[in-house]
Amino acid sequence: MNHHLYSLHLLTFALRTAGDAIESVALPWSVLQSTGSLLSIGGFALFTHLPWVILPPLLGRTLDKTRKRVRLAFSALLLQSALAVVIVPFSSNI
Q1: pTM higher than 0.85, yes or no?
Q2: How confident is the model at residue 61 (pLDDT cuts 50, 70, 90)?
Q3: CB atoms within 10 A of CB 41
């Protein structure tokens, strides 16, 4: 049974990694085709990665000081996701 679960985990990890690689090429390519501007690709990269660079240290410090860690960690993940979703549409208008 453990071998089956490990194989399933390995398969899903490989599919997720392949999907992430495709996404990392397809999204900037789509921005380039729709805007024709290399500056838009730079803005897209900046604004999609900015929440993942700034928020984890701030939220990590807060998470270490609180008792309800699971709830706060889930809230932090939702906040980071919401910021990424909100920022992405603005990055192609640079």
Answers
A1: no
A2: confident
A3: 19
Residue 30 tokens, joined? 């789509």
CA–CA separation, 92 vs 32, rounded Å?
9
The count of C-alpha atoms lying within 13 angstroms of the C-alpha of 39, restricted to the half-sphere facing its C-beta, is 3
Short-list 50, 53, 54, CA closest to 86: 50
pLDDT of residue 2: 78
Is the CB of residue 51 less than 8 Å from the CB of residue 87? Answer: yes
How far is residue 80's CA from residue 75's CA, in Å, rounded to a whole number?
9
DSSP 7-54: HHHHHHHHHHHHHHHHHHHHHHHHHHHHH--HHHHHHHHHHHHHHHHH
